[in-house]
Amino acid sequence: MISTLHRMGLRSSMMYTAGLASIGLAAASWFLSRNYEAAGQDRADRWGIFVGEWAPTFFAMGVALRMEEMRDMKRHEMAEWQETQQQAMRTPSRAGV
C-alpha cells in the first residue's frame, strides 16, 4: 500500500504536515465544540480526541513513506553506479600507451 501511495506522488512531508494539521484541528474542534455547541464538555472532549487520533496515523504513514523514499533513492543510486561501471568496461583502457 505504501509503495502504491509513493508511486501516486504522496510524500512523507505531506503526511507529516497532515499530522501537524490534525493536532491543530483537534484543538480547534475541541475549542469550537466546547464554546459553540450546547452539548457540553463531554462532546467537546470526544471531538478533540476523535480528530487527535488521526495524528499518529499520519506520522506513521510519513515514516513509512520516508522509508520508501530512501529505498527509491538507493535503487536510483545503484542504477547510476551500474551504468558507470558498464561504461567503464566499454571504454578501452589507455594504460599501456
Describe this protein's structure:
- With 97 residues, the protein is mainly alpha-helical.
- The protein has one domain (2-90).
- Helices cover 82% and strands 0% of the residues.
- The protein is built from 4 helices and no strands.
- α2 runs antiparallel to α3 (41-52) and α2 packs antiparallel against α4 (54-90).
- The N and C termini lie far apart (56 Å).
- Residues 78-97 are annotated as: Disordered.
Strand segment tally:
0
End-to-end distance, in Å?
A: 56 Å
**Mean pLDDT across every amino acid position:** 85
- Indicate the proportion of strand residues: under 5%
Low confidence ranges: none
The DSSP helix count reads 4
Categorize the overall geometry. rod-shaped
| Rounded radius of gyration (Å) | 25 Å
What class would the helix/strand composition place it in?
Answer: mainly alpha
Total individual domains: 1
Fill in the keyword field for this structure.
97 residues; mainly alpha; 4 helices
Short summary:
The chain has four helices and no strands. The chain has helices at residues 2-7, 12-36, 41-52, 54-90.
Summarize the topology.
Elements: H1 2-7, H2 12-36, H3 41-52, H4 54-90
Helix pairs in contact: 2-3, 2-4
